[in-house]
Specification:
It is a single chain. With 199 residues, this protein is of the alpha/beta class. The protein has one domain: Glycogen Phosphorylase B (Rossmann fold), CATH 3.40.50.2000. 44% of the residues lie in helices and 15% in strands. The protein is globular.
Length: 199
C-alpha cells in the first residue's frame, strides 16, 4: 500500500480543517435566560404595560406585585429577585399621575441602580408593539424612545414583542450590550415565554 506523506505545512492545515469540521457537528446552543420570582413590575412612562402583564403573570402562576410608580423603597420592601420594567411612555398616563418624563427617567434610573446593587435581575419589557414606539407618537414626542434608552441598555434580559422591533432597535442594543433577548409574536405567546423564563 502506497503511503501519502504530507508536507508539515499541509499537515498543519489539514488538522485545522479537521477540527473545524468536528466543531460543526457539535454546535453549541445558547441556553435560555432564566429569572426567579418574586417579581416587582413597574413602568417607565406610565403606559399600559403593567396592566397587560398583570393578566399574563396570573396565568403563569408566579409571585409578583404591580407598582406602576414603584420606588426604591418599594423594591426593598420584599425580597424581590426580579424587576420587570415595561418600556414605552403614555402622555395621558403620566398626566394622570401628575409627573413628567424627566420624573419617570429619574425614578427608573434610581430603581435600576438599586436593583443592580442588590443583584436583582432586571427584565426590560416592550410588549405593546409599534404603538409604543416613536413611529406612532405625535410630532416631536420622543418620550417612548427616552424610556427605551433608559431601560434597555441596562437590562439583564430583554422581553420584546417582535412587531415592536421591526427596525432592529432592540436587537442592536442586545448585541451591543450582550443582553439575552426573548422575542414573541402574539400576546398569547407571552404566557409560554414567561413560563420558560420563570419556571
Amino acid at each position: 500500500m502506497k503511503k501519502i506523506i504530507l508536507h508539515p505545512t499541509l499537515a498543519f492545515f489539514a488538522c485545522i480543517l479537521a477540527m473545524n469540521f468536528t466543531g460543526l457537528g457539535t454546535a453549541q446552543t445558547t441556553p435560555s435566560p432564566k429569572a426567579s420570582p418574586p417579581i416587582l413590575v413597574t413602568s417607565c412612562g406610565q403606559s399600559e404595560g403593567p396592566s397587560s402583564l398583570n393578566t399574563i403573570l396570573k396565568r403563569v402562576g408566579v409571585a409578583y406585585d404591580i407598582a406602576p410608580l414603584a420606588t426604591v423603597k418599594d423594591l426593598k420592601a420584599k425580597s424581590y429577585k426580579t424587576l420587570i420594567i415595561t418600556m414605552g411612555a403614555s402622555l395621558k398616563g403620566m398626566g394622570a399621575a401628575g409627573i413628567s418624563i424627566d420624573d419617570e427617567l429619574n425614578r427608573i434610573t434610581e430603581l435600576i441602580d438599586a436593583a443592580k446593587k442588590d443583584k436583582i435581575t432586571i427584565v426590560g419589557a416592550h410588549i405593546e408593539g409599534m404603538k409604543r414606539r416613536a413611529q406612532g407618537a405625535e410630532a416631536g414626542d420622543t418620550t417612548d424612545e427616552q424610556s427605551i434608552d433608559t431601560v434597555a441598555p441596562k437590562s439583564d434580559i430583554l422581553f420584546i414583542k417582535k412587531e415592536g422591533n421591526e427596525d432592529g432597535r432592540f436587537t442592536i442594543i442586545a448585541q451591543a450590550k450582550k443582553i439575552p433577548m426573548i422575542e414573541f409574536e402574539k400576546n398569547m405567546d407571552m404566557v409560554a415565554e414567561l413560563t420558560k423564563l420563570f419556571k
